[in-house]
Design a protein that fits this description.
The protein is an alpha+beta fold and about 140 residues long. The protein has 2 helices and 8 strands, in the order H-H-E-E-E-E-E-E-E-E. The strands form 2 sheets. It has a 4-stranded antiparallel sheet, with helices on one face. A 4-stranded antiparallel sheet has the order 4-6-7-8, with helices on one face. A hairpin with a 4-residue loop joins strand 1 (about 55-60) and strand 2 (about 65-70). The longest helix is centred in the first third of the chain and has 28 residues, at about 25-50. The protein starts with a helix and ends in a 5-residue tail after the last strand. The mean pLDDT is about 90.
Length: about 140
């Protein structure tokens, strides 16, 4: 009896994994988790600016799929993802690299990052006045 239950469980797990692969479920998980990670890093930079009273910079390089944040945090995004940044040109550290600066009062220079994969996208928006960081589904920017 135990063997039958075990075989049925294995068949169910295999079916679920196959369904995820066939429907692009794993790619959607990658997209969403990457968007959540960037959102968390932006929120950390804002909180760090408020806590220390000094401006903190979040930088993202869409071409190399890399980011840097406050307190020497850094990371990379999957090359599968499309990365699109919109922000203030005045704080760009170099051509093609975007930046958002958070100030000690919580305000920021504002901007947005869009992560996309095929027909799905997530937008991470940073309000310039309040520095609030929000995550929402978006339309793919082509």
């Amino acid at each position: 009896m135990l063997e039958i239950v075990l075989v049925m469980a294995l068949i169910a797990i295999t079916g679920i994994l196959a369904l995820g692969v066939l429907t692009g479920g794993f790619d959607r998980v990658l997209l969403r988790s990457s968007a959540k990670e960037l959102t968390a890093q932006l929120r950390f930079a804002r909180a760090h600016a408020i806590a220390t009273g000094t401006p903190q910079r979040f930088e993202i390089d869409p071409d190399s799929h890399a980011w840097r944040s406050a307190d020497d945090r850094a990371g990379e995004l999957s090359k599968k993802l499309g990365v699109h940044f919109t922000g203030a040109r005045e704080v760009q550290p170099s051509q093609g690299v975007g930046a958002i600066v958070f100030f000690g009062d919580g305000a920021s220079t504002g901007g947005s990052v869009q992560l996309s994969l095929r027909d799905a996208a997530w937008n991470i928006d940073v309000a310039w006045l309040t520095g609030e960081v929000t995550l929402r589904r978006g339309e793919v920017v082509r």
